[in-house]
Amino acid sequence: MTVTTESVRSALEQTPEQVRVESHLHPVGSYDVADHEVPTGREEIWRFTPLKRLRCLHADAEFMRPATSATWNTPDGVRIEVVSGDEARGLRGISGLVPNTRWAARVLAEVPASLLVDVPAETEVAEPIVVDLDGTDVLVTEAGHVALRFGAHSKAIVVLNHTGSSTVAAVVEIAVGDGADVTVVSIQDWADDAVHLSHHQARVGRDASYRHAAISFGGDLVRMDANVTYDGPGGSAELLGLYFADAGQHIEHRIFADHTAPRTKSNAIYKGALQGEKAHTVWVGNVLIRKVAEGIETYEENRNLVLTDGCQADSIPNLEIETGEIEGAGHASATARFDDEHLFYLQSRGISEQEAQRLVVHGFFNDLIRKVGVPSIEDRLLTTVEAELAKNVLKGGVLGTGA
């Protein structure tokens, strides 16, 4: 069945207890742009974001003709194309998204076309589907809508690779059919001047498996929301994140696992490193366990490694629980400098201080990188981490030991 914007609106009116999100971190949504006021920065969901650096994407910036090119490979059996008209409108809401921000409501209402990646039911795609999005003009404020649709019992990996200079607001909707096995990797490797405001919304079908990896290195300001809801029992979601902020960068990741069905699972692991004056990272995690969601399992974890003075890492995990009939729920958060014992152990075996620091950082990220599950991406991430370390660690600019 095709889910249209009209059908989602109808569901919102008929079953508010299932669709409306009663969470202090997620205001009730609306498709009507007029229902969303322009943020001031005092709102809970905006208080960490430097709004002046968003170039009005959060408010009423003109959505200009796109200056970001999109290219992709097309494996056998997969449909990938830009669609418009009725077909594009029919894709709005395939994830069950009801926008709770002005900018996302504007994207759904005003952007005339959608990039569709459609994997039919029972199709197993052997190679990753890679969509390269390359920005060419940071002065152009633009917006996009991407729909990733995976049929029942399909299996596929989609990589969204962001490079170049751009000022873009993007909504990515993911519909994971019953029994499907899906991985979505979003890499933000922008040029230093880019601004990227994005919302990823996934709906996971019965007994389906969904993995989402958010990887942010480049850009002046990157903010990504990664949300998931469930269409039936047995669905599982793994939310992974890796980020490395340099001087002046603001990188913000927010996750929301909304357990809307019983016997579902969610597991979130985000790790970040910071170096350079005024490097700022934000991670806000939230899990809502509804009354209907009995027998669920969830855990969220965020860890940050501060490499130089002048950095700030904000980390806020949240659990909202409406039923006590659950298998398990927990969270963990830590922000620290290098561990004295780790460095001492390595140096006592003849390894130099700088090389010891390098090995500790690689060890910090390595287990998470291996969880991405795409060998070519894993190799690229290891190389990128090494390049980031060269800016400070390998030049001796890292903090002394101690947390």
UniProtKB/TrEMBL annotation:
It holds the Pfam family SUFBD_core. It comes from the Bacteria. InterPro entries: Fe-S_cluster_assembly_SufBD, SUF_FeS_clus_asmbl_SufBD_core, SUF_FeS_clus_asmbl_SufBD_sf, SUF_FeS_clus_asmbl_SufD. Residues 143-364 form the SUF system FeS cluster assembly SufBD core domain. Transmembrane segments: none annotated. Belongs to the iron-sulfur cluster assembly SufBD family. This is Fe-S cluster assembly protein SufD.
